[in-house]
Amino acid sequence: xxxxxxxxxxxxxxxxxxxxxxxxxxxxxxxxxxxxxxxxxxxxxxxxxxxxxxxxxxxxxxxxxxxxxxxxxxxxxxxxxxxxxxxxxxxxxxxxxxxxxxxxxxxxxxxxxxxxxxxxxxxxxxxxxxxxxxxxxxxxxxxxxxxxxxxxxxxxxxxxxxxxxxxxxxxxxxxxxxxxxxxxxxxxxxxxxxxxxxxxxxxxxxxxxxxxxxxxxxxxxxxxxxxxxxxxxxxxxxxxxxxxxxxxxxxxxxxxxxxxxxxxxxxxxxxxxxxxxxxxxxxxxxxxxxxxxxxxxx
Length: 298
Hints:
Distance between the termini: 28 Å
Shape: globular
Structural class: alpha/beta
Oligomer: single chain
């Protein structure tokens, strides 16, 4: 059951401790990014990955952390957004991936284009950016330097900046029928119920991803920790009377149609034991999910 859970490293105070607890609990997928933990997350993962070759890892391209920007300038790498270091130009992607392979000590199984909507309001400009990114990632995957790629977004899908069919069509245009576009990552939680409500009606991003054969990594299932303080006894009873507050919140993400893995950042064995308890539960039925949605609204 732990296969449904993946260890996220966003906002982790101690990446080694958090991921170590996750791997000890049986988690076999870790998700990270070059800018997590102030630019130290990838290097912190290397000892764990070397000791546990069965663990798979995904990272991202897009945000260049402060600590890397001097090296980027020295390498002649262009940064679109110098204030926040966000860049999806092909030279920047190639440069970031080379550093990620060194820091991780292996070829990443997946590389996500990180929040491509960042700083953009024009769909045509975003389409050009994604085309350039997909071209570089297809080339890198063809060379065996990444296992595959995807798109990780916070608001790109919910805001309508792009859709799953558009991303899939772009991958087919760039890489042909044997393209390496494998996954998407976006928030699924009690705070983001609209995507679940759509799936129950047979439409929306979760259904489109499933129809395209894409894995879905559900991010922020606990709303960045906000949900735990908002889980009333009544809401927990509606979801699962036998669950803890954290388990009830996780159950919604774990039960959402089309979700492959749920990303969780937990630092202690006790937290992971609680999460594993949620993963071991029967998924919530569509009727139960609809009841939760009716109680909270979308």
